Amino acid sequence: MSVNIILASTSPYRRALLQQLKLPFECQNPFTDEALLENETAANAAYRLAGLKAQAVASKNPDSIVIGSDQLATCEDSILGKPGSHEQAIQQLQSMAGKTITFHTGLCVIFGNQRHQLVEAYQVQMRPLTSKQIENYLLTEQPYNCAGSFKSEGLGITLFNGMQGKDPNTLIGLPLISLTSILNDLGQGPLGG
After folding, report:
1. Quick one: pLDDT at residue 56?
2. Contact at 8 Å (CB) between 68 and 51?
3. What pLDDT does 81 receive?
4. If DSSP codes are grouped into helix, strand and coil, which group holds residue 48?
5. Please, what is the end-to-end C-alpha distance for the chain in angstroms?
6. Is the residue at 191 inside a domain?
7. What is the CATH number for 122?
C-alpha cells in the first residue's frame, strides 16, 4: 500500500534530488526557526534542524512519511553560511581555497510513531583558486543562496581537487542512499518490496 510522502522543505535542490527516486511526493514548508543554539556544532545543528523540520510537518500529516533535512558546512571549525552577496561570496571562496570543507547533512524520516534520524558528513578538498577563477565562477553560477558559495551539481565541481564520503548527494543536501534504506525499511522503497 502506497503512503503519501512529504518533503519538509522548499529547497529546489532537495526537491530535484528526491525526484531521482521516482516516488510521488509533495513539498511543504516546515516554517521552523533555523537559528543555531549557543556553542552548537554543525553536526548537532544539522541533526536537530532536520528533526525539527520533519516534526513540524509530521504533526500536521500523521499518516504520511515526512522527510526533513538540513545542512551546514564547516571550514576549519567555522560554520559557513550562505553568502547572500557577490562580495561575501568572494571572501568565502578566498578563505576556503586550498582547504577541506566538511558538509554535515541531517536526515529525519517520521512515519507514525517511527522516527529514523542521522547525520552524514561529506568532505570536499578545494583547489587553490585565483581571484580571476573565483570571479568567473561567481559571475557564471551566482551561488549566493548556497552555503560555501558554490553549487557542486554545476560548475562548482571545477573548484574541487577531490571529494570523500558515502553519498555524493549528501553534498547537495539529501543523502539518498540512507534515505532509500529507511524507505525500504518502511516498505515504501523506490523499487518496491
Report:
1. 98
2. yes
3. 82
4. helix
5. 10
6. no
7. 3.90.950.10
Does 176 reside within a domain? yes
Distance CA 120, CA 131 (A): 32
Q: pLDDT at residue 19 above 90?
A: yes
What pLDDT was estimated at residue 148?
87
Catalytic residue list: 70
The predicted structure's pLDDT at residue 46? 96
3-state secondary structure 67-110: EEEEEEEEECCEEECCCCCHHHHHHHHHHHCCCEEEEEEEEEEE
Pairing of strands 65-75, 5-7: parallel
- Cα(1)–Cα(7) distance, rounded to whole angstroms? 19
In a domain, 156, yes or no: yes
Q: Which DSSP string do the residues of 98-164 spell out, in sequence order? A: TSEEEEEEEEEEEETTEEEEEEEEEEEEEPP--HHHHHHHHHHH--TTSTTS--TTTGGGGGEEEEE
The model's confidence at residue 153, banded by pLDDT at 50, 70 and 90, is: confident
Domain carrying residue 137: 5-185
The answer as to whether 193 is a domain residue is no
- Confidence at residue 183, expressed as pLDDT on a 0 to 100 scale: 97
* Number of domains making up the chain: 1
Q: What pLDDT does 193 receive?
A: 60
